Amino acid sequence: MRSSSRTLLIPGIVSLACVLIFCAGPSGDHEWRAGAAAICITPEKPIWMAGYAARTQPSQGVALDLYAKALALQDRRGRRMVILTSDLLGFPAELTEAIAKKISARHGLQRDEILFTFSHTHGGPAIRNSLSIMYATNEQQSADIEAYAEGLQPRYVELVGQALAAMRPVQLSFGRGQADFGVNRRLLQEQGYVIGVNPQGPVDHSVPVLKIVNEQGTLTALLFGYTCHNTTLQGNNYLIHGDYAGVAQKDLQEKFPGAVALFMNGFAGDTNPHPRGTLELAQQHGLSLSAAVQAVLSRPLQSLHGRLKSHIRYAELPLSTPPTRQELLEKKQDPNKYVRAHAEQLLALLDKKGKLDPTYHYPIQTIQVGDSLLIVALAGEVLVDYALRLQKEIEQPGRLWTVGYSNDVFAYVPSRRVLEEGGYEAKDSMIYYGWWPWSLEMEEVLMKSIHRGIRQVR
């Protein structure tokens, strides 16, 4: 069953919401129950866009609507889980935690039963307190960004309620395909590592797919992923657009009317689409990913049986030695405006707290769906080295689904190899995010905590 309604989110800031809900079929005593819902979160008025420092003005139109979606799952014991996906760059922890508390209060879900993930499109609106150093916004533009984030909060609470209310008996199955437009972007040149095209660099081309069908065998929802930045459209684009992930979701929903398609990005911190730069290429990559998902759906998949388990833990990831006040005062004179703004931000934090914290409180979420699917969801812009290492270190690597941009999109999360090599992902990006480089010991601290989280859901 498919129903829709249109509801105003907040006047003048957020567009009318298109609400899509599926009910998977009549109720009964089944192993799994599921429900999904979606709302349109396209800004109604021009708003500063996220992800590129090169932009000089707000958005100039809409080429593809943006959506927030929810998939609710429940096992035979009544254990529930809600996965929230969004066509946005990502929320900082303060925003996801505020929304999670409201969801818990309204719907009785524990924090570990709520997963926030983001496609990391660079064609969506800027989010408050995230990469703000990048954006040359005036007072009104900053107010619009704040109002957009505020307007989203109650909508996510309602979205979860719609997905939970839509839960009906289903069958779950899992499979994996491939898409090949993602390419490693760390290119070594004379001046060091730069963002380019490195066909020899590490990548993860897998396309994991969770298929959800009702009692009649009809596809009612699908959750799929890929590991690649949503940056086909670059800083010269001023049209709201979900990039390749938005195109893929739209195409899948057109191919399977009544189904809700949800996308989760992987550990894509050092992977870009190739080629890139135009709306036509975003369409091309999106249709390529959709075709890869459809190929998976056309084959026999692994049925999922067993329990739903979830766990969230926090690792204290070590940063390198913080800059001193004197070093920050010197950087306030730097000719680079972003370095100056970064120094001012850290000085303000130093004045407020009296010190700069030596670690970052980092969320790690693990989810076991039956006996054949393990989701490891990490915060930030995680680099692909972590996915490849996890595949080597866990039992049954074929069941692993690595998801980045989850719960807290606050910085890049590079491997030790990349920290030693340097470049944007290792050092320069930390200026825009408001931090300083990680300690070389960070990878081992993180990996140990990931494995502890995995053990909690076995």
Describe the structure.
- It is a single chain.
- By secondary structure, this protein is an alpha+beta fold.
- It has a domain at 2-303.
- It has helices spanning 93-107, 139-165, 243-255, 279-297, 325-331, 337-353, 384-393, 416-421, 424-433, 442-456; strands spanning 2-10, 14-23, 32-40, 67-75, 80-86, 114-118, 168-178, 182-189, 192-198, 206-213, 219-226, 260-265, 271-273, 302-303, 308-318, 359-369, 374-378, 381-382, 400-403, 412-413.
- Strands 1, 2, 3, 4, 5, 6, 7, 10, 11, 12 and 14 form an eleven-stranded mixed beta sheet that branches. A four-stranded mixed beta sheet has the order 15-16-17-19, with helices on one face.
- The chain is globular, with a radius of gyration of 21 Å.
- The chain starts with a strand and ends with a helix.
Features:
30% helix; alpha+beta; 11-stranded mixed beta sheet; 458 residues; 30% strand
Assembly state (oligomeric): single chain
Order of helical and strand elements = EEEEEHEHEEEEEHEEHEEHHEEEHEEHHH
Instruction: Determine the strand fraction and express it as a percent band.
Output: 25-35%
* Discrete helix count: 10
Largest sheet: 11 strands, mixed
Q: Termini, distance in Å?
A: 35 Å
Q: Provide the helix percentage.
A: 25-40%
Mean pLDDT: 93
Low-pLDDT segments, ≥5 res: 1-19, 21-28
Give the CA-based shape: globular
Rg (CA only): 21 Å
> Using DSSP, what is the number of strands?
20
Helix/strand/pairing class, anyone?
Answer: alpha+beta
